[in-house]
Amino acid sequence: MTTDCIIIGGGLIGMLTARELALAGLSVTVVERGRAGAEASWAGGGILSPLYPWRYGDAVSALAQWSQERYQALSEALAEESGVDPQWTRSGLLMLGAAQACEAATWAARFGAEIERLDAPATTQCEPALTAVQTDALWMPRVAQVRNPRLVKALRGSIVHAGVTLKEDTPVTDLLLDHGQIRGVRTAAGTISAPRVVIAGGAWSAALVAATGVEIAVEPVRGQMIVFDARPGLLRHVVMHEGRYLIPRRDGHVLAGSTLEYVGFDKSTTDTALAELRAVACRLVPELARFDIERQWSGLRPGSPAGVPFIGAIEAVDGLFVNAGHFRNGVVLAPASVRLLADLVLGRRPILDPAPYRPSTPRPGEGLAATAQFRTKTL
């Protein structure tokens, strides 16, 4: 089998990359080790903003801003192409506590974001479900969310509609290299030839890139979440407090997340996380104690130094690219990351300066001490 481009990885980044390249006229094949969209893309909360965005560098904010401005239109297009509504919803983001109000205001002024400081009465008025909370807050009214399982289902339908070949349950066993040129991939089901290959394997990407002798600092970071079978309207907005968040869905479900655990590729869930997430949720919104927890699950985020993804060419191998390492922000950064990667693959003028994302660019926060500090900061 021969195609113009192979995408290794059928998550949000991989499928969205396939869609972008297919719309540009390339024949594209997506090769996924499991089921499309079933890993971190499915498991996340779908908040379309980095959590505490001023804690990240400009490289992350630039991708987020570009994506946020286009997400509603993307969701509408995916719904039309697939018949599945990703449920883009402008919920707003309410961050309890205002200890970093000055840093937040400086960041907002630089990136044109709308942010407001609320006193305790105004916070309760904004979100009446917070009956037990008396604290100032930072309010970002324009932040939206999508429903991850619906987003990846819509995207799967979209790429099939666009003519992309999707091969699921097909692990890649080898990259086919010939004198510094990518020639395709070998899978358990046979060989696929292509002059371009994009590695978008999420937390599994580093091992694929390592086959070329190049290392990228992407590692799995487990996140556990729970969902309450609550009533519609109980919670109006996404609420953040000390690194934990509550997300209201249109049908009344309320997600509570998430943990940040460096445990390798272990996707198991724990009673400790369940108890902690439930306690935090019920402390913030006491009425949640009346509702059952419908499900607990986990996903493996592709962690990276300072949360800056690797987007661009693997310089040691002509025709090989990577789009991975989005850490906690894969959903919000996806449209810009994919467009930038497609620009580089197709030789178009890039939407953003690609330099901060190149695999060969040193990341701020690399090194053991700096990485430990960033892990603490992103809680």
Short account of what is shown:
The chain is of the alpha/beta class and 379 residues long. The chain contains eleven helices and 17 strands.
Provide an overview of this structure:
This protein has 379 residues and is α/β, with parallel strands linked by helices. It has a domain at 1-88 and 144-216 and 306-379: FAD/NAD(P)-binding domain (3-Layer(bba) Sandwich). The chain is 31% helix and 23% strand. It has helices at residues 12-23, 40-43, 58-68, 71-82, 101-111, 120-126, 148-161, 205-210, 271-284, 330-346, 368-377; strands spanning 5-8, 28-31, 93-96, 116-118, 137-140, 165-167, 172-178, 181-187, 190-193, 196-199, 219-228, 238-241, 244-248, 254-257, 293-303, 310-313, 320-324. The chain has an eight-stranded mixed β-sheet with strand order 4-5-3-12-13-14-11-15, sandwiched between helices. The radius of gyration is 20 Å and the shape is globular. Residues 367-374 have low confidence and may be disordered.
Annotation keywords:
FAD/NAD(P)-binding domain; alpha/beta; 17 strands; 31% helix; eight-stranded mixed β-sheet; 379 residues
First-to-last CA distance = 45 Å
Q: So how many helices?
A: 11
Instruction: Supply the CATH superfamily name of the domain at 1-88 and 144-216 and 306-379.
Output: FAD/NAD(P)-binding domain
Number of E-type strands: 17
CATH arch. level architecture of the domain at 1-88 and 144-216 and 306-379: 3-Layer(bba) Sandwich
Q: Helix and strand string, N-terminal first?
A: EHEHHHEHEHEHEEEEEHEEEEHEEEHH
**What strand line-up does the widest sheet have?**
4-5-3-12-13-14-11-15
Uncertain stretches of 5 or more adjacent residues? 367-374
CATH topology of the domain at 1-88 and 144-216 and 306-379: FAD/NAD(P)-binding domain
Q: Please give the largest β-sheet.
A: 8 strands, mixed
Radius of gyration: 20 Å
| Helical percentage | 25-40%
Outline: globular
Strand content: 15-25%
CATH class (first level) name of the domain at 1-88 and 144-216 and 306-379:
Alpha Beta
Look at the structure and give the mean pLDDT. Answer: 93
Q: Which class do the helix and strand fractions yield?
A: alpha/beta
